[in-house]
Every structure is written in C-alpha cells, then in structure tokens.
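#lab-general

N.A. 3:47 PM
ok so I finally got the sequence cleaned up, no stray characters, all 269 residues accounted for. can someone with queue access submit it? mine expired

B.Y. 3:52 PM
send it over

N.A. 3:53 PM
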Amino acid sequence: MMSYIIWDVDPRIIEGVDFLRWYGLCWAIGMMLGYQMLQKIYKAERLNQASLDTLATYLIVGIIIGARIGHILFYDPLYYWQYPIELLPFRLNPTFQFTGIAGLASHGGIAGALIALYFYNKKFKLGYLFMLDRLIIVGALVGGFIRLGNLLNSEIIGKATQLPWAFIFTRVDQIPRHPTQLYEASFYFIIFLLLFLIWKSKKFNNERGFLFGLGISFIFIQRFLIEFFKENQVAFEEQMILNMGQLLSIPLILIGIYVMLKRNTRFAK
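B.Y. 4:20 PM
back already:
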C-alpha cells in the first residue's frame, strides 16, 4: 500500500484563538524578510534609507487591498454583493466569526503593488522601472511564504494523484493530492534566488525593466503551468478550458516579456 504524507495542521496557531493563524504569520515573516532584503538593496545602492519605511507602508496597504479586491472581482463578486459585510475580516451569519483576511488573489496583489509604487515614485522619483527591478526580487521571496501559508491553511489544494509525495489534506478529504502549494513555494524561492544573484552580479542593473520583466514572466509562467495540477477554486471554472488564474496570468507573462525586451529603450528610461 502506498504511503502518503498526512497533513492535518490546525490553521490556528493556538486552538480557540481564531485571529492567530499560521497564514498570517507566514505573511508577516515574508514581509519582514522582504523588508530586510530591501534594506540590503538600498544600502548597496546608496539609496535614501529614510524612504524605505514609506515604501513598505505603501506596498503593504496596496498589496492587501489589491489582493482582496482582486479575489472579490475575479472569483466571487455575486457572493460579496449579497454579503458585503464579509469584505471585512469577520462574518455575522449565523453567528459572529472572525475570519481574518480570507480570499486574496495574487494577480490583484500585483495590481495593488503597481499602483502603490506609482504614488511612491511620484514622491521620491527614483524611477518606476528602477524600483520594479528591485521589488520583483522581494516579491518572489514574499510569494514563497504566502504559498507556505496556503499549505498551512490546507487551501489551494492539488488534484488527486498517486505520486509518493502526495499529501492527504485531512481537513478537506481523504484523497491523496498534489501539494501544489509546495510546488509554487519552491518555484518562488528559486526565482527569488535567481533574481537576487542577477542583481548582485550588476550585469543588468543599468538595463531598467530587465529584472522585472524576467521575474514577472517566470512567476506567472510557473503559476500558469501549476494551475493544471490544482483543483479549481470556484465552480464556474469547471466549464472553462483555462481557469481564472491561468487567464489572468497570460497578460502578465506578455507584459513581462515586453518590458524585458524593451529594456534600454525610451520606454525603460
């Protein structure tokens, strides 16, 4: 009989305390390490350290709001139209329940980060693509920790498989499945390491847009491919050839390739 990995992790860090969850802790760890990475980049490039706290605030707010709005618009707009109170981190029906910030879409998070960076750049004028080239490094790192949070939440699960590394998410069912959260987390960390090493080499640091284009393309190419191993998140995707995550990934892949190829042109300055 095949032996699988039994996954039965309580998403709460402390039983009975709903607002302390492993998912939130993974977000916090990712943000903290991302901030430290930005400090390293700012110091190496002799940028204004005082503006870094402002950048972190802009990005955290932009990413969370963008990811939340993205989930609502892309995956379940009718539900939130009927239950608008659940836009907040709690529900009232049938009784009051703290849910945390449940339902975040990475594509919306990217959009929120881009908008937040636009306003940051208007104030500090470091160059929009210059900043994107540095932030994509941090974004890949944070993305890896978010997917580990999804694993600890037993969510975004994979399709059934008989592979020996399959996980049985006992809080969902008893079916061995692809641990797609680990697949994505692994790719995010690999992309982070690749981008960091390229930045450290300084080979492309003057070619604005190259690192961002490369990173965003790789991130959403792997997202597009891994979606084939995932269960669909919402019912309407069952009738689609490509699911919503894949459809939203295609324009970001194309934008990444375009920006990367257009480096060192008038567009990139």
